[in-house]
Amino acid sequence: MTDATPPLASGPAAGRVLAELRRMQATDLPTHGGRTLAYVYDSGLADADALGREALAMFASSNGLDPTAFPSLQRMENDLVALAGALLDAPDGFVGAATSGGTESILLAVLAARRGAPHLTAPSMVLPASAHAAFLKAASYLGVRPVVVDVDPLTLRADPAAMAEAVDDSTVLVVASAPSYAHGVVDPVAEVAALAAARGIRCHVDACIGGWVLPHLDHLPPWTFSVEGVTSISVDLHKYAYTPKGVSLLLHRDADLRRGHLFASAAWPGYTMLNTTAQSTKSGGPLAAAWAVTRHIGTDGYARLARQARRATLELAAGVDAIDGLHVLVAPDSTLLALTTDDTCDVFTLADGMLARGWYTQPQMAFGAVPPTLHLTLSAATAPSVPDFLDALGVTTAAARAAGPVAVDPGLGALLVSLDPTALDDAAFTGLLAAAGLSGEGGAIELPDRMAPVNALLDACPPAAREALLLGVLDRLSRPTPRPSP
């Protein structure tokens, strides 16, 4: 008689592992319920969520690397690109690709523009100061010099005249947002695209956050491919298409414009590598989930969800203006709001107070002449809870006004302003962490219960110093977990 074959798995039982995952997830922000007003998007449709999860799991092991091996994925990608093209007024002959998210879509748009001008050794792109930081990331990765132009100080929209002055013979791309993330306003796309077309330059519209909402609203000037001169548009499905993360689409007016981010290599002994995006291997799960959810919700369903989120945004904006000490920074064009305070309180204290009451709102630092703001992304699922949100915001603001604005230690503030980021070694960084109240045992990061004092310190930093400090924090957070004792 022989012993039974032992199981191949040698770790904890599946049930125990799942329990550990649930315990870790309990410390995260909620992804559903409409109370997290950044990072996540909730349609409020339980059946769509369940369908997306099932499709995600069903295709999680499929690989989008080779369309001949998994033709279903190519079919789904083509279907999604066609759906987006209809929404965005794409002309005959347009093409697209599915990516992992808005940042990859933007990277590829910049890459295609750069490679579309091979005669330039030092290409540049012109973008408004409100453009998403993903363009600066693309500039850093791809060696394209960013020429950042101030926005209109009243509307916070791109200034086409100033952008036209910034364009020169090295410019390969100009950028507009629909809408800008930070302020929620749509740039004058027609004017920006016209200045690009006049110089024979590409124009990319970043509609990552608005592309599945704005087509269903009727109060905006044209911003899609209906505008001559718009050469590419990015739109995320894992935002207002309410699909599981992460999937975005990058659409080009024609196939020649896309060619710069296609890649092939037969110069090695393996298979010929052939890609439309930065990724090679990519799970079919997010693509299949997006295909399933968009088919299920349908165009009419998305129109209803967009109008629901838009009504909620306007209702919330009107309610904010009735709260002493608060106001909306600029009238919203879509479903994003930026709130600011008078000198009786600060947005960092508000963010802490709202989190304590079960609402996540995102503090944004001052930028140029724009003061610190509180960013709100309104999903359809948030709409029924707007009165509750406003009640909590009113109570939180009253408490913040009673306490007064958070104060920054003058000495520490002066140190941060004078800080040379290039001279910040590990020992100096450890000292700064301790001064900021972020230092734990052994120099590890220990986040406080109240982030307002930390955020106020960061707000006092010049951008370069803030970047250096936060990269140091990220570095300390991104360290291997010590192995448990046997």
From TrEMBL:
GO terms for molecular function: aromatic-L-amino-acid decarboxylase activity; pyridoxal phosphate binding. Pfam families: Pyridoxal_deC. Its cofactor is pyridoxal 5'-phosphate. SUPFAM superfamilies: PLP-dependent transferases. Keywords: Lyase, Pyridoxal phosphate. The modification N6-(pyridoxal phosphate)lysine is found at residue 239. Signal peptide: none annotated. It comes from the Bacteria. InterPro entries: GrpII_AminoAcid_Decarb, PyrdxlP-dep_de-COase, PyrdxlP-dep_Trfase, PyrdxlP-dep_Trfase_major, PyrdxlP-dep_Trfase_small. One of its GO terms (biological process) is carboxylic acid metabolic process. PANTHER family: PTHR42735, SPHINGOSINE-1-PHOSPHATE LYASE 1 (PTHR42735:SF6). Belongs to the group II decarboxylase family. Sphingosine-1-phosphate lyase subfamily. This is Glutamate/tyrosine decarboxylase-like PLP-dependent enzyme. It comes from Phycicoccus duodecadis. The lineage of its organism: Bacteria, Bacillati, Actinomycetota, Actinomycetes, Micrococcales.
